[in-house]
Structure formats: structure tokens, C-alpha cells
Amino acid sequence: MKIVKVSDQVSLKRSIETGTFEQQSIVKNIIADVRTHGDAALRTYTEKFDRVNLSSFSVPEKEIEEAYGQMKDSFVAIVREAADNIRSFHEKQLRPSWMTTEENGTILGQKITPLDSVGVYVPGGTAAYPSSVLMNVIPAKVAGVKRIVMVSPPNVHGKLPAAVLVAAREAGVEEIYKVGGAQAIAAIAYGTESIAAVDKITGPGNIFVALAKREVFGDVDIDMIAGPSEIAILADDTARADEVAADLLSQAEHDPRACSVLVTPSLELAEAVSLEVEQQLALLPRKEIATRSIADYGAIYVTVDLDEAIDIVNQLAPEHLEVITENGLELLGKIRHAGAIFIGRYSSEPVGDYFAGPNHVLPTNGTARFSSPLNIDDFQKKSSVIIYSKKALTDNGAKIAEFARMEGLEAHARAVEIRLNNDK
Amino acid sequence: MKIVKVSDQVSLKRSIETGTFEQQSIVKNIIADVRTHGDAALRTYTEKFDRVNLSSFSVPEKEIEEAYGQMKDSFVAIVREAADNIRSFHEKQLRPSWMTTEENGTILGQKITPLDSVGVYVPGGTAAYPSSVLMNVIPAKVAGVKRIVMVSPPNVHGKLPAAVLVAAREAGVEEIYKVGGAQAIAAIAYGTESIAAVDKITGPGNIFVALAKREVFGDVDIDMIAGPSEIAILADDTARADEVAADLLSQAEHDPRACSVLVTPSLELAEAVSLEVEQQLALLPRKEIATRSIADYGAIYVTVDLDEAIDIVNQLAPEHLEVITENGLELLGKIRHAGAIFIGRYSSEPVGDYFAGPNHVLPTNGTARFSSPLNIDDFQKKSSVIIYSKKALTDNGAKIAEFARMEGLEAHARAVEIRLNNDK
């Protein structure tokens, strides 16, 4: 793994996949087709892309029961405990509607309301990601969203992975449809005969799913378009090289474009981690992916001191940040930009991926400068509440009218004045 | 104004202005040019579009002092009082970072951090909108954003409107640049020699500004792309027709594509409001704009009863909602979708535009189903904090590793296990 001297500007940014013009056209056509032909279009695309002919998209209760039968009890118990942890962490984020009152009778406030409905996309393919189901569904459920829909592409037998179905049931999903790709996004954005539209779509997917989410954005809300995974580890010579290397590789195995970075003032640690990465890499099942990721996007930055290392971390604004230093907690106040911050050697990043409770859907590609982990606020919206009394309007009406006239908006001024005049 | 029977589906949605292909190309070229040539490009475009040759874009202190000299003291006092109200309402939204502790040593939490920097766009043209400056800047300031930049196109004399400069100073802006259009968005998104880049851009603008914001989104954050203004008034026969009509017109005067709707179970009120609208319209300075808006997008929906009227309102998800009924406050719990809710006859919509305190930047075009007024959360981000103790990892490590292996991510499992083994 390459050890580099820090340059003036470091960045985790990789170009965002915006798709080819052809891919964009395909997605636009699929969406238009689903809007026009509904279920018939879904059936056609499912046959074409997933190679299965479905009479109904809805997952019946029987298939969920079968899924439980296929999973080890111990695994179901782990899913349940993880779900409890995630639920508990997100419940602590709930805020009440609030109001403030003034003696003149004015009442102002914010009414907090859950979204009516949310659709969660779960990718298909060879691997099943039940953790992704938990992380997307549970916050919506805790936020009070009444209708949560899950969509995911079926295999050639017309089934979804058992682990995904179990996670969906444990998270509290009651509507699951076997449909994937851009056609699934179109279906839940605009509705078909058998699938009602939702207000927001979350969850990861391939380039076609990402393009479709961009396309329907505005008509419905979407979560972020996530980039490849990232980790930055801020460590001093109290850290163990083998543990640091293992954590770097846990991101590198996700994707050839994943990015794993160590930032340290210790040249000794840097050299030891570099060696450890090579050794551990050779033993990984996904070593091809991880090797490309480390070669193309891995780096060890050696800094003059810890303060410079923290500067680097803030410039990177990483999705995941581990702090493995003496008195790591003392550094928390200096860290301005990171999606999730893991402090201390026992807080290995996978702890947060699966189990601890905070969300694993995190801002990537430097967007932790201005974005947050998926959270309760993503599934609730606020409405301002304004109640003016007669006295409040009498006291302030003339000022409001003067402000409106200053902006050339006479009808605004008159709307206030007609009330003052009517009361005379 | 047309009185219509309610159909099954009502909607305020108007097509979103996405710009022509030519406009999109112009904007892309301007952005590329500013990224490459910096201030020189800004100077060229400012000469071309604003017809003024500027040696420096920064507004000097002297021009701000001159602006105060040009404004009536009474107006400055109103701006100051409005700013105080806006500040006070937004301060109430502040949340602390929080943590939760467990007996096994686990600490989980959310660290709330203000964005480093925000840029506010203020449109130019014939009218000056100081209220827009207050509404965009003050929440950022209250949220703790250290650097707030304002950009606005200069007039042919190279000046900004006095009211805008006064509002900017009262709101606490310390950097103001005379640059507008797509070139201004490019400058604050990517930086030039004289203007440093920001992390988020808010504020309204023309189609070129809107397209530029879409284009830079992802590299920086943006607020919503606002559509034309909307009001829905839910009223029964306790409402005065002249007041209802005046409020409908206060939105209609904004824009020919603004949308003003009355929803009422009272045919009597419907007929009286329809007449009043015609009469008041004739006397408005901006009657041409308001007439087109009322003709094209105005409607009075007469419903069977109040419950049906509330259903209609929830379907519309209006930007502004006035509730002028007996016991209006009792209906608040039934209103699920609205940007700002004004209750009672003294809570005329302009009260919220200028003075009461809640933000006037609100979700339009039905997006109140899933979006919120501009608020403190828009200028802060959260980072998850995860601290696992030795005991926490010992108790849960095997479960985390099993979950990771279930998803085929062996390096994740090993990152946890290496710690358990090292401690043996």
C-alpha cells in the first residue's frame, strides 16, 4: 500500500457515475413505459431483465414463512437484536412538534409530521444484504411512516432471498413486491394497477436504479445517490497495525472503487500497516476487488503531527472515520466533517455496518461536508404554524404593510390592511 | 374566479421549468468557463449580462454605509424587528449533540455540526427583496455557519439595491459580491481568485440560476428549486369574503404562474369571494400578473363538508395554507401536508412573508408532502458517533462477524475477530 507525503489538497472525490447517454435514454423509456402501461410494462421488463414471468408481483405470506424456515434460528436472533439496536438509536432522534406563545396572543410553531409512504429499493444479484433492509426501513417505521413498501428484483425462480424477506418482516415491512431496476422505481414513484405510489424512495441500486431515482426526483423525494464506500483511519502509534490494516480492507472488499486511507503522524505505523495490508489482502476471498481498490484508491498519509492529520481528515470528509489514538474522544470536537465517527480500537467499522444502531447509510464522496447519515428527519417533514391574534395584527400590521410596499407587493399590504379596516 | 366542483383528483402541480437544451448548454459553458478562468470569466459575463465593468466584485464598507443613508430610519427599524423575530423562531429549532451510554461501556450519539460556509443568491432586476435576504441568511447564522457569502447581480452603475445591502448587514453577512446569474453560482460552488467556494448554496433566481444550481449539486449542496408561489385557503361561512379574496390575490400578484385556491363547503362564501376577487383585482397595480394567475391557476372548490375540504387540502399539499373556520386550531391535527399553516382571520399570509418569524422559503408544487420550510437542519449536519468498549465488542463481536459472513463480506468479519484474538 502506497505511503505518500501529504500534499496541499487531498480529496476522496471520485467522479460521480452519471451514466452514458444511452443508459439515460433506456431509463427514460422504461419510466415512460411504466407510467403508460403500468403492470403490463412491469411484467415485460421483469421477463426481459430478470428472466421470469410473474402473474403477481406481491410477495405472499407463504413465501415469508418459507424464508424463516430457510434461515438458521441463530441468524434470525442476530437480525432481531440488530433491529432492536437500530430502532433504539433512531427512537432517540424523535422530536415533538412545538409551539411558542406570546402575551399578545401570537402562537408560532413547527408541526412535525411523518411522510405518508416510503418505498425502499433492495438490490438483487448474487449477494443478499439484509442489513440494508434494516437500515432503510427501521428509521421510516420509527418516524411514523404508515406505509412502507419494499421492491427488489426476483431471481429466475421468481423468489427473493430468504435473508432479505426475514429482515423485511423483522423491520416491519408489510408490502413487498418482486420488481427491480428502473421499472421498480417508476412503479413506486407513479403507481401501477397493483402498486400504489409512494412519497419518497430510498435504498441503493445499480446505475439504472440510480438514474431512475434522479429522473423521478421532484415528483417524489429520494435519498442521496451513494458513491462507493470510504474509510479514513486517524491513528497514532498506540494503534495496532494489524487491526488498522483489517479495517482498511473491510472497506476495500466492497468495491474496486472503494477508498481506504490511513492518516497518521507515525511513519512506523505507516510502514507496518502497509506490510500488514499486503499480507492480509492475500488471504481474502474478495482479494481481487480489494487489491484493485487499495491500488487505485488506497493511501497512507504521513503527517507532521496529529493536528495536521486532523486537518487532512476534515479535508477528506470521509464516509467512515476511525480514530485510534491516545485519548481519541478528546479529538471529537476537532472533527468537523465525517459521516460516522468510530472512536477507539474496539470500535471497528463493521460494528456500525450491522449492529450498534446508528445508520450505515452515510454521505460519501466528500458530501459529509454538508450531508448526514440517513436519519429520522429524512422521514418526517415540518410545517410552520402561524397564529396571529387581533392584537398581534393591530400592533404589527402597519409595519408588515410597509415592508410589502417596499418590495412593490401592494396586494400583500392590502391583505393585512383590509382586516385592520374591517375591525375599525 | 371560477367555481368548480371537486373532481376525484386535484393538484397544484405545474410543470417544473427545466429550461431548454440551449439554456442548459449556456449554463454548462458558463460554469466551465468560470472554473477555468475564474475572476476573468466573471468580469466578462458581468460586462455582457449586467452591462457594467467591475474591477472588484466585493462590496466595500462605504457602499453599505451609503445604503443605510438611502433608507428611511423607520424602514431600517422594521427590518431589524423582522430580523429579531426570524432569529428568535429559528433559535428555538437548535438541537444539541447528544449521546447515550450503556453499562457495557458503549457510547452512541449524534454530533451536530454547522456547515462551514454557505452562499446566498439574491436575484437582481427591478424589485429588491430584502425579506429574501433575511429568510435565507438568518437561519444559517443561527445554525452557527461561520462564513456566509451573498452574491447578487449589480445594476449598470455597479451597485446593489440599498434595501438588500441593509438587510444583509442586519442579517449578519460579512462578504458580499456583485455578481449574478450562472456565473455567480459557479464562482461560489468552485471558487475563483477573489471568491472562495462554499459548501451550500441557497436562494431563488431566474432559470439560469436554477439550472446552474442543479448543475453544481453534488459538489455543493443546494436548497430546493422553488416553483411559483401557492396559497390554499380552507374557509367556512365564518370567513369574510373580502379578506379571503385579498389573501388569494396576495399570492396571485407574485407571478402569472402562481396558484391561488379556495376550498370551502360554503357555496355562499364561494360566490362572494369570486365577486370580491374580480373587484379587488381591478384596483391592483400588478393586476396584469394577478389576472393571468387567477384565470390560469385560480380555483374555488366547493365541497360537501369540511372533512372533504380537508381531504382536498391534503391532496394539494400547498406551500401556504390559511385556515379560516370556526375552531380552526382543532383542524391542525388533520392537516398532513402544507409548508406553512396560518390559522384564524388575523393570520393573513403576508404576516409570514415578512415578519412573524417562521421562514418564507417553503416547499412548492406539492412537495410539502415530503419537504419542509427552510430551517436550521438545512445548515447543520449530523455525524454518528460510535464508541464500543472492550466488553461491548467481546459480547457482540461473534454476532457481528456472523452477520458479515452472511452477506459474504469476510474482511468485515475478520476486522472484528482480529481484535478478539489479539486480546486473548
Automatic annotation (TrEMBL), chains A, B:
Pathway: Amino-acid biosynthesis; L-histidine biosynthesis; L-histidine from 5-phospho-alpha-D-ribose 1-diphosphate: step 9/9. Substrate binds at S229, Q251, H254, H320, D353, E407, H412. The active site is at E319, H320. Keywords: Amino-acid biosynthesis, Histidine biosynthesis, Metal-binding, NAD, Oxidoreductase, Zinc. Signal peptide: none annotated. PANTHER family: HISTIDINE BIOSYNTHESIS TRIFUNCTIONAL PROTEIN (PTHR21256:SF2), HISTIDINOL DEHYDROGENASE HDH (PTHR21256). Binds 1 zinc ion per subunit. It comes from the Bacteria. It catalyses: L-histidinol + 2 NAD(+) + H2O = L-histidine + 2 NADH + 3 H(+). The keyword Mitochondrion does not apply. Zn(2+) binds at Q251, H254, D353, H412. Its cofactor is Zn(2+). Its EC number is 1.1.1.23. Pfam families: Histidinol_dh (PF00815). GO terms for molecular function: histidinol dehydrogenase activity. NAD(+) binds at Y121, Q183, N206. Belongs to the histidinol dehydrogenase family. This is Histidinol dehydrogenase. The keyword Metal-binding applies. Catalyzes the sequential NAD-dependent oxidations of L-histidinol to L-histidinaldehyde and then to L-histidine.
